[in-house]
Amino acid sequence: MYINTDSKPSIQLKQKPFQFRFNSVSICSMAIEENSELQVVDVFDLLPNALVFEIFNRVGDARSLSACAVLCKRFGDLVSQTHNVSLEITRRNTPMPEVSNPSRSRGYIGRFILKPIYAFVNRMVSRKSKTCSSCSDDEEEEEEKVFRLPNDLLKNFKEIRCLSVKLPGHDGNVPAESGSGALLKWKAEFGTDLESCVILGATGFQKSETKVKNDGENEMIEIPSVSVSTNLTSKQLKKRVVWTISCLIASSARHHMLKQIISLNRRIREVKISDGSKQGTIEMTEEQVAEVRKEMNMNMNSTSAAADTAAEMDRTRIPAVTIKMWYVPVLELPESGSVMKGATLAVIRPTGRAGDKDCDVSLAVGAFGEKFTAEAVRKLMDAKKSYTLEMNSF
Questions:
Q1: Which range has the worst mean pLDDT, 103-112, 189-198, 260-269?
Q2: With left for phi above 0 and alpha for psi between -120 and 50, is residue 71 left, alpha or beta?
Q3: Which end of the chain, N or C, is less packed with Cβ atoms under 10 Å?
């Protein structure tokens, strides 16, 4: 009882000073809030322009930078001077015009659809060869959607030095005849014309499978080595010719787009166009961009029929080329844990500028920047047999 009676006054004595301190803190905090409202400071105003400019250069994404540009005049001025810009082009939901419209092929979409391939290839191969991964009906439907023009999205950037453009990709890999995922990758380099193109394709690409013995140990499925590669049949060769033509037309269409971007952005030094599915890439170095710009200046002062024809085309004309091709029916990649069926490598250069094997190996191994592609290229080039094809300009 003594403890209970003593505890009551002790609690009552501590309540008053506690309440007084709480009220004083509340009053002080309200005064601070009133003063802070009168002196609002934007922390970005304290950052020097050089630091903000470096941040924008590291951001790179054109859409994000465009959003920053509308926040204030200072940001708008700095964004317009950004050197490194990356742009991902999206599809519009607007339907395409009717096929009968003659102006359809003049638009930018004509550079991405594969219909020009059919008109060219039908004179060389049968209709059945269109079952290859790069010429399927599904891909044609995907490519026939409208893209946003990169020039419209880049108009606010006046000082671009390095530009990277990503085109819309496809929804997954196109099924191969065997039912497993097909593979088709290419990389091209251009100056004023095609300088080189590397193509890596397979009718099937999958992870290595294992089977279990009765004693429980794992054993890899026996797969033919590179040394026992078989010859390409006529049908298989036709399919790979279609692959080659498809990739060359796609690369020349992107090069045509690059030339238009370069003409409107005079400060560009390096440029790259890839796609969301990581299938094809075209790159141009500072020297190659300067070469293209020099040619453009010459064409502006020229009234020749050749210059007029080049201006009307939806793509850059492909010169006569020499194609070196390697083929292995089933290629095991132990380092990557994968298997390629119908593995094919093609190294393409303009006729008369073909390099030796060491140059081809160096070009092809570093083309795609992935572990499994480098391994596949090395193994394919170790094959005892290769094919050499020549193709006229188109």
A1: 103-112
A2: alpha
A3: N
Cα-based torsion angle of the residue sequence 318, 100, 280, 238 in order, rounded to the nearest 10 degrees = -70
What gap in Å lies between CA 305 and CA 321, rounded to an integer? 24
**Rounded distance, CA 368 to CA 279, Å?**
10
Which three-class secondary structure state does DSSP give residue 394?
coil
Give me the DSSP letters along 205-243: EEEPPEEE-TTS-EEEPP---GGGPPPPPHHHHHHHHHH
Q: What is Dmax (Cα atoms) for the chain?
A: 115
Tens-place pLDDT, residues 131-185: 334 443 444 344 434 455 666 778 888 889 999 998 887 533 333 344 457 889 9
CA–CA distance from 254 to each of 144, 187, 279, 281, 315 (Å)? 16, 11, 13, 9, 7
Strands 204-207 and 210-212: unpaired
* pTM: predicted TM-score of the whole model, two decimal places: 0.67
Residue type, position 343, single letter: A
| Cα angle 307-390-250, degrees, rounded to a multiple of 5 | 55
pLDDT band for 229, please (50, 70, 90 cuts): very low
Strands 270-275 and 280-284, how do they pair? antiparallel
